[in-house]
Amino acid sequence: MLGAIAEKVETSRQSEPMIDFEKERAEILTKYRRLLRAAKPTLKGDDARQIKKAFTISMEAHKDMRRKSGEPYIYHPLEVAQICVEEIGLGATSIICALLHDVVEDTDMTLKEIEKDFGPKVARIIDGLTKISGNFEQGTSAQAENFRKMLITLSEDVRVILIKLADRLHNMRTLGSMARNSQLKIAHETIFIYAPLAHRLGLYKIKSELEDLYLKYTEPEVFKDIAQKLKSTKSTRDRFIDNFIKPLKKKLQDTGIEFIIKGRPKHIYSIWNKLKKQNTTFEEIFDLFAIRIILTNTTPEKEKSACWQVYSIVTDEYKPNPDRLKDWISIPKANGYESLHTTVMSHTGQWVEVQIRTERMDEISERGYAAHFKYKGNDTSMNAPLDRWINQVRETLQSGDKSAIEFLEDFRGNFYNEEVFVFTPKGDLKVLRKGATVLDFAFEIHTDIGKKCTAGKVNSQLVPISYTLQNGDQVEILTTKNQKPSEDWLRFVTTSKAKARIKDLLKEENKVYYSDGKEIIAKRFKLLGLENNLETLNQLRAYFNKKDYNDLYYAFGKAYIQPDEIKKFKADRDARLNKQAKIEIDNKAFIDAKSFEKEIKKVKGNDTLFIGDDLQEIDFTLARCCNPIPGDDVFGFLTVNEGIKIHRNSCPNAQQLLSQYGNRVIKARWSSQVAKAFVATVHLDGIDRMGMIQDISKVISSELHINMRSLAVDTNDGIFTGDIKLYVQDTQHLETLMKQLGEIEGVHQVTRVDAESRI
Predict the structure, then answer these.
(1) Torsion angle of alpha carbons 466, 470, 472, 473, nearest 10°?
(2) Model pTM?
(3) What's the mean pLDDT when you consider all of the chain?
């Protein structure tokens, strides 16, 4: 068999003189053999023959293709298949689909040919993995449309998502060969959609690696800094963990419990998140230390009691933090995760997180949904949380007339949120998103009950439909025949199911308003001489801040927006299109692109910000949400009505822009540093003392010769906080200032403020 494959590899040679074809041929065969070895335990019947056929077809289809790194393209499907087997635990069907996942998209091969060779199941999965081709209307998102298409297949076969996650993981592992703007687009799309999806499917290792790789390419200096700190403190942490584990090992062995105990490293993205959220330092993160106790040879009926027994042994040795006990054994997470977590105080005064679980629970926590099939058997309750979530996906997909962006926002809402556990009057358990209300519960029971819901009884007490449910509540729904859904309901429901059902019910009632609104707009366009096309409609939609065209039509049809407002829209649009950009310089701070370019040319000749693949000088504006200055890593974003806007890579809005509208992202790069002033804001906090303001002013004005635009300081019980808006030359200038401010006695922390919201 391998001889035949070798011949096929030989035929895929290309004519470039510098390529070592023999080495590539050997590498391809090595990867293929490694894949077969990993898959061997799961193969049955003619699986090996089908995998060989898929590999041969993929080799032929991609024979003239190379990746950005210069490697043969076939490396990619082989590595994706390897991830499917080794890291997710999938079988022959998934291997075949992984090997063929790009064939239909990148070559002339059709789904019909795939179906003929491998059957309808493989064809259906590959269809779910194939991107939608063609152009999209303004206001839509290619990424969101493709994600919705993929999920439609997910509702029939979860392997679509599992293979896609393997595909995305390999793309992220090889992202270094891509252009910078492509790196940003792919990385942000990954953190926005795929890492949360891996989390939701219980693939903890893949989720963690995707998050770390996102940080590596979006914040490379931060990533290197944390990685270096972890490396330099590894031996200290290992010694600490060994000493912490020693007494636990003895006690567990004395009880006859079979176990594996090991340290659990914190991944870099998680540390970075804590640094941001807790405004703390690397050294102050208390749960850098964590261990995992895995119970082996435990029968299913004794799993819970065994875990609690180990918990008792741990807390006998170390005092627990009562607020940090998390029991996901009694009621698993919605992604199927089961474990017992506690945080205890070590004998040296440091907090340590301890995770207690069985082998089965550990494999499910690492491999997620795929591992459930190994243990599920005839016990359908074993996989109930994930099955329930897949059903929710199906229900979300049934509302097919919502925009892809709206669908994606609704869907993402179910990724990371915690759950609330409530009961029906008969004692049946219902799991809802945390923050769910009585109305969410009503729609969870049935759409007919939801649309007629007027109130609820929670623990026998009468409550309104907006009442937020708590864990353990017992809920009864009260209905009346005359009740009708209203738009207000959308304000206090949180579940995707309730939102989708309410929107569907409202749309049915509001069709007449859509029609009226569309007609009103068309007549007014004609009267004002405006073209009634998608571009103008999209500008009007953006002008009135509406999500989609139906929202726009509805607002006019219901008379929330008067027809005369279109005249104002036309005047504003014409003014923006026709008038020259005015120079607006506030104390030498450059606000818009024209004044920015003019001042640059005064000082540095023709230095400017270059935009696009060919690095041209194009008009732009600086985004107010993140205030980019020379030296910042930036990207351009093509807006619908305001031309190109320049954002920092770390902008709060970057993730959404890059993940949903990656096709509108434009490369941008500063040509050089500009020795002029740009507005930046820094925030300080610390312990107040006499002379603090004088010392701060001395560093800013006397030592660094920086001009301040404004200063606001507040003190409370000996603690001071302050915001300083000042003029800096570039990022390096700002970092020097922040470092020197941080060295002032009593100053605890100095941070840069992204938006102009503090002063």
Answers:
(1) -20
(2) 0.62
(3) 78
